[in-house]
Task: structure prediction
Amino acid sequence: MRKDDAFSIAVDPTRSKIVKRLEEAGKAAYSDLLDSAENVRHLSSTGNFNYHLDFLLKNSVITKDGAVYRLTDTGRIIAQFIKDVDQSWSRLEPKLRGKNMNIFSCAEQFEKETGTKMSKTTMSFHGMDLISDEKRVMGIIAQEDCSKDFFSSHKPLELEGFKLCVKTCKDEDNALALSHSDLKYCVSPVMLSLICQCVEENFGEAHNFAVREKPYPLLFRGAALGKDYNGCAFVVAPYVF
Result:
């Protein structure tokens, strides 16, 4: 058997399911193998299934004895290979589909939509992985991180309460900022508007949370705290003048 034929068995769900079923059971009838394959994906016809079964027979991966199918020695080697691939994938999948992948994807999308230059690496932020803009005014975190203790004091904040103001920085330059009647600090008007627009366009509605009593990063996401959704969350650093 050629290497690419062996690989096609591992990656094809119907072929790999037949091999795995025979490896588990030792032997199986046609109907049992067909049921196993149907659980993996919808087969358009039994002819489609028979094509894959014949492939395994012709390549001496399985053998047929009357109405019963079994693995050959080659088949058992391939079954172990499939098992090794499955175990490797189970370790790799969380990294590919986990929060790091999500926030990198969101960071790339945010940079594309807004032109804001984003870091290509994560930084640690109170036990969370965060991707920051180059000036470190805002960052992107996984939405599940919003349940961490760091955000336990954050409460909903009405966006309508923000007002533009001019503040004098320590270097004596005047800067535009957003103040809020419920907050004792200001935030960046540019970042706030970019984030709100991004969240609303991608997730339907922007929810804003803040700590009122002291300068703390604001939190933005597409759902209320405690509610999961398929998105990310933004934190915005406070302006302290």
In short: The radius of gyration is 27 Å.
